[in-house]
Amino acid sequence: MEKRIVFATGNQNKMTEIRMILEDLGMPIYSMNELHIDTDIVEDGISFEENAEIKARAVARLLPHDIVLADDSGLEIDYLDGAPGIYSSRFAGEDTSYDIKNRIFLDKLEGVPEEERTARFVCAIAAVFPDGNVETVRGTIEGQIAHEIAGENGFGYDPIFYVPEYGCTTAEMDPEKKNALSHRGNALRAMRKIIEEKYKKDEVEDESV
Ligand code: IMP
User: Fold this and answer.
1) How many C-beta neighbours within 10 Å does residue 46 have?
2) Which of 3, 71, 13, 7 is CA-nearest to residue 34?
3) What is the distance between the alpha carbons of residues 82 and 2, in angstroms, rounded to a whole number?
4) 169 in ligand 1 pocket by Cβ < 6 Å?
5) Is there an atom of ligand 1 within 6 Å of 186 CB?
6) CB 7 near ligand 1, within 6 Å
7) 185 alpha carbon, distance to own chain's centre
8) For 35-61, what is each residue's pLDDT tens digit?
9) Cβ(121) to ligand 1 under 6 A?
10) What is the reported pTM?
11) Residues near 142 by Cβ (< 8 Å), separated by ≥ 6?
C-alpha cells in the first residue's frame, strides 16, 4: 500500500510550509481536513512534545495505516520564565487579537534591557508510524522581544519577534526566508530525515526477506 503522510492540522499556511519541506520524500501529503477527519482533541500535555504527541496519536487511531504527524508550537520569553510557552495561542484568551497580545508583552518588557529580552519560537513535531513507533523532534529559532510592533507578514507573535542577525522581526521577513530559519522549518527538516532513514532501513529489511 502506498505510504501517505497526514498532518493533523487544518491550517493552510502550515500545510504550504509542510508540503514545501516534505515533498522530497515522494509521499502524498494530506491535511486532516482534506481527509474529512474531525476529532476533538484535548491538549492537556505539559510540554510542546507531549501536546504534539497527543494530537498525532488521536488522529493515528483513526488512520492506522498512515504516517500521522502533528505539531505544537509557541513563544518562550526568558524574562517571563518561558511564558507564554504552551499557552501561546490561549494567552489572554483565544479570541483576543494578536495586536492586543503583542502589546501586552511589550508592556511587560517595558524598560527591560536588550540582553534580558531573549526569546525563542519552539516547534515540536510528533510522528506516529503504522508500526506503532512514535518519534518527536524539536526545532527552535532564537531572537529577542522587540521594543515595538513591526512587520505585516506571518502571524501571531511575529511582529514582536526580532532576529538580531537579520535586523528585523519575523513579520518583516518574506515567507521563504522565515521558512528557511524558522522553528517549524527546522523541526520539519529533522522529521524529514527521520522518515527518510526509517523507510530506507525498512526497504533494506524488506529486500533481505
Ligand atoms: P499552534 O502550534 O498552531 O497551536 O500555535 C501555537 C501558537 O504559538 C500560535 O497560535 C502563535 O501564537 C504562536 N506561534 C507559533 N509559531 C509561531 C510563528 O511562527 N510566529 C508567530 N507566532 C507563532
Assistant:
1) 9
2) 7
3) 42
4) no
5) no
6) no
7) 8
8) 999 888 888 999 999 999 999 999 999
9) yes
10) 0.94
11) 118, 119, 120, 163
pLDDT score at 17: 86
pLDDT in tens, 156-169: 999 999 999 999 99
168-196 average pLDDT score? 95
Distance CA 58, CA 8 (A): 9
Give the C-alpha separation, 123 to 160, whole Å: 18
- Chain centroid, CA 120 distance in Å: 12
Q: How far is the CA of 109 from the centre of ligand 1 (A)?
A: 20
Residue 29 C-alpha cell reads as 501529503
Q: In this structure, which residue's CA is closest to atom 5 in ligand 1?
A: 73
Q: Is 89 in the pocket of ligand 1 (CB under 6 A)?
A: yes
Q: Is 206 a catalytic residue?
A: no
- 25 Cβ partners below 8 Å, 6+ apart? 5, 192, 195, 196
The answer, yes or no, to whether any atom of ligand 1 lies below 6 A from the CB of 73, is yes
Ligand 1 centroid, distance to 86 Cα (angstroms) = 9
Q: Which atom of ligand 1 is nearest to the CA of 73?
A: 2
**pLDDT band per the 50, 70, 90 thresholds, residue 16:** confident
d(Cα 80, Cα 155) in Å, to the nearest integer? 21
Q: How far is the CA of 35 from the centre of ligand 1 (A)?
A: 24
Which of the residues 71, 72, 78, 174 is marked catalytic? 72
DSSP bridge partners of 77? 83, 119
